[in-house]
């Protein structure tokens, strides 16, 4: 009798595990949700601008082959953004991955992005672990401008890009100096949200990724891990602090496991306008 009960418990546990894994994989490969935000940038004149934030692409099998990224690129183009911001971690190297891709294979679909003010990116920790030099070169060949603790003008905006804080490649003071030097309305792009705590008030908007919004986020418990030294403080979504705005995307790919539970893939369409 006892053995029969234990067998039923084991079978039920296995069934729940299979259902959760199936749901998690379905969520991981689903079409990214487009989340929207409106942010005031004092001094910005003219028509509002649409900024598209996408992060944590993690190109690798089984869930993010280049063909899926190409479909995401088409989805982005359909939103007609003025500027595309890629917040790092293009490389996928999960231990259970079914296929890895070269740097050129990873970034090739990004050449299809269409934004009148360009496509800007910073590198993430996985990009550094693979090869920062190789990834930078591949991105440039695909028409993507890489910001590594540097800044560039994009129309009226002075966009600073902080290199990856998780691998200690960030230099926020140098990035801020370069943003000041080129003039324009400042916004900041960072792989990790962690630098946001030290961003001065004159930079009203910071866009980031890295946390995956936990990738697996359970009711009551919340995200199992955000890989941030601030825990859940900057885990996910649209946040305001000391007059500054932070947008943290869940990303469109996965790390470690090709599963998402409670944290579906997303991208952010951020409309910025003056007062």
Automatic annotation (TrEMBL):
GO terms for molecular function: hydrolase activity. Keywords: Hydrolase. It holds the Pfam family Metallophos. Residues 50-212 form the Calcineurin-like phosphoesterase domain. Gene3D superfamilies: 3.60.21.10. The keyword Hydrolase applies. SUPFAM superfamilies: Metallo-dependent phosphatases. This is Phosphohydrolase. It comes from Allosphingosinicella deserti.
